[in-house]
# Entry
Amino acid sequence: MMRARLKPFRARGTVDAPVSKSAAHRLLILAALCPEKCRVYLSRGTDPEKSDPSRCLSAGEDRNKIDGVSDDIRATLSCLSALGCDWTVENGVCTLPPIAKRAGTPVLDCGESGSTLRFLLPVALGLGGAEMTGRGRLPLRPMDDLLDALEKEGAVFSARRLPFKAEGRFGGGEFLLPGNVSSQYLTGLLLASPLAEKDTLIRLKSPLESAAYVDMTLDALELFGIRFVRGADFFLVPGSQRLKAPEGGVRVEGDWSGAAFPLCLGALGGDVTVRGLKADSRQGDRAILRILSDMGAVTETDGDRARAARGGLHGTNVDVSGIPDMVPALAAVMMHARGESRLFNAARLRLKESDRLKTVCTMVNALGGDAAIRDDSLIIRGRETVPGGRADGAADHRIVMAAAVAASACAGESSVSDPGALNKSYPAFPDDIRRLGGIFDVVDLG
# Structure
């Protein structure tokens, strides 16, 4: 088994934020639906011309050859190709022409990307239907509320879990969704709404969680010229609208979810700056800087840069219902902070790439920390000295990154399995660890 060997170090330096998966999914899909060509800048960092360039690639080539692009974004690009968008990528710029109808039923391989599946299912119906498939835990992740809503407007599904065939046509209508299950369902319907001749009305039957992700979707729709009305418990997109490609293309912002891990490295041991971030981003995970500050770290923002440096860290309580992806990174810091911390309202973590309540808890304890699960909360008791150990990455990118962050402040050498999982969201993470002065050597440790 391949494992990453990790050693204690104090992280110092500057790295570029990875591109935001959340933003990229939305922008690529809307760009492909435009009636004219649209460019999406996928480059990592503030200047796409200075990022690591890929050679020119087309939709028909191996999507795994797109340098620096995460597996989840590759999955969305692959699905857009299957739907009839013959995109090209050159020097980090993706050019997407209008979708051209292909013969037969398209097969959309969503890989392990829940966003790809949930965003593109309504879109695929708007284009005439598709076969949907995926791998890993994706076939096990819930879809019932979205399928039920689509079925009431005429969609037909051959099964309730992947793989399945989706038939019928998305033409707008009225949809009822719970707000506390997945904002991705809501986003999928919103992204498909410009394809509908009728109005698309989405009503919520419970309060909306992860509202920041819905805000990102609405911002993307507005960027492409789509009008909408947002109420306290509903969203209305008038029918028969026309998407318009923004002049000059659109740039994908940096990812606060990914940036959280190098920022946590700075808070634990040194001084780290991440550039290429929007201080006023809609991404809910930008809360990481506030939480680290609340715990005693030194933090600041300056233009597109965020900084976190070592401070006297102490435990805190965090409601993670709106920022579930922050739990692994926060746990890695909290296990080294004075006192007890509690990450609560975390039930949705059980439905991620792994059962993250369980795998985060296991990772903390495997490295010598003290963590326990209590209902939908993770309780972490900080220790002055954490020895280090062998962590299970659980084939989950965020668990692997969290283990690397936690190991930086351990007393001895550590390791984590499944380093290849990093390709899902942050393929440059090992290189960034090295840039900051650390060790991330992938070896066969058995």
Observations:
- The mean pLDDT is 92.
- The longest strand covers residues 2-6.
